[in-house]
Amino acid sequence: MFSTGRYEEELRKRNAALAEKRRSQIGSGDRSERIRTYNFQQGRVTDHRVNVTLHSLDQVLAGSDDIDTIVEALERQRLFDDLQHAEEEEEGEEE
Questions:
Q1: What is the pLDDT of residues 30-71, one digit of tens each?
Q2: How far apart are CA 31 and CA 75, in angstroms?
Q3: Which of 2, 19, 44, 64 could tie 7 with a disulfide, CB 3.0–4.6 Å?
Q4: CA 57, 59, 62, 67 torsion: positive or negative?
Q5: pTM of the complete model
């Protein structure tokens, strides 16, 4: 059983971690936090989250298999992030 002071400290840490997670998911809305750029003049689409650029904008917008390239890159990034987060949690539990 936790003493009141230790419980409050653990609660504060947990709330701070949740707040940081929310901030990282929401972002600031700043223009520098671009997700995807569509350049119609050059026929290019770039997903800035995974740094993938395709020079087939028309096909992407038409729903061709080219969009799968971006989706697969996003899935790989999500898996990587999940694994990294799990490792960080394990390290935190060992301390």
A1: 666 788 999 999 999 999 999 999 999 999 999 888 889 999
A2: 24
A3: 2
A4: negative
A5: 0.57
